[in-house]
Amino acid sequence: MSDLWNVDAIPFVGKASKVQGLGFRYYEPERIVAGKPMKDWLRFAVAYWHTFDQRLVDPFGDGTAQRPYDRFTDPMDQALAKVDYTFEFYRKLNVKYFCFHDRDLAPEGDTLRETNAKLDRVVDRIAELQAETGITPLWNTSSLFTNPRFVSGAGTSPYAKVFTYSAGQLKHSLEIAKRLGSENYVFWGGREGYENLWNTDLRREQEHMARLLQMSVDYAKEIGLDAQFLIEPKPKEPTTHQYDFDAATTIAFLKTHGLDDHFKLNLEGNHANLAGHTYQHEIRVARVAGMLGSLDANQGDKLIGWDMDEFPSDLYETTAVMWEVLDEGQIGPHGGLNFDSKPRRTSFTAEDLFRGHVVGMDTYAAGLLVAAQMHEDRFIEDLVGERYSSFDEGVGVSIENGDANLSTLEELALDVPQSELLAATHSDHLESVKGTINNYIVDTLGQA
Ligand code: XUL
Ligand code: CO
User: For ligand 1, is residue 140 a contact (CB within 6 Å)?
Assistant: First the structure.
């Protein structure tokens, strides 16, 4: 392996030291957990935009990032050289997947034709390195939100010329998905929402958005692209109100427009929090609807109300996420954990990119180990089964199977004294449940 990054391949070191450095404590790709190697449960992916392009800007300051390919001053030279860095990065981390937007890869030209030509030169290089390494896209997507032409949306833009351009851009992105063998294709509606309702035709915008998605479904069929289509919900930022607000809203939108057979969801931790939900909530809602597709791995900050895209380090959250995944049997038919995460502005060295991923991967590996132990002991399954057990017999069965109606139930309810109803309820002891989860985390990782 070449040494473009001046960082060694990341080894598994176990608990050699308490200090988390450039080695994995918990992530052992081949270790069998709950019947599958860790690498198959987790399917980690690196996000091109954050890891290789992000300059670590904030609203008050320029980028601080120091990257080894900054020495290439011509944008196209840099874009082409960078591809080699990206594949070495994946290999040193032992990650098998990556995710990208079309615009992450190459600079734009004046026309779509010129832009596509530049993009294709970089895609050619990616295809070569994919063939050499076997590393492939978990998903790709199209940035229909960065350029000023998308100021008022893409599929929901009030300008037909911008909708037309968006469709053209999207078409080429789907062709790239086919060429590179992407397992999924993501739609994040970065500007598909509104700033203000007074100037917005909400019905028309949502119909246009559905139309663009239907065109994409049709084109995928035409070119034989079998990537799983995913929608990524986010409630706000950049627009005041995003149409794909959260999992439940997005599922309703897909059903309303007859698109639900063609899409699943790509859920992100920080987006869930912005919507006022936990990450686990979003995953559970998607699971119940049969729509869990893939996961963007990151976390927010309890004190800050916008999208921080921090690398995951919260064991409690990764335990909850991996419990859902274990219960489901997989993240999604082709799902994985894409690190839609960036180092803090103060972590500006190239090495910090490795450090962030190591912590993210280890935190998810640890969450998997804890959740697998909880699962094996059936701690949650038994607790939930017991809580609803009155529906397993008698009147409960007749309610669930549809035999009961308001009259039969009234008959049973009319003369029941209050004391009997109260005797049917039980304390949930939620404090003990949370304490038990803490014990699982401490004990499992103590013995891991
Ligand atoms: C934005 C976000 C995107 C999508 C892909 O918050 O998460 O990077 O993951 O467009
Ligand atoms: Co994301």
Answer: no
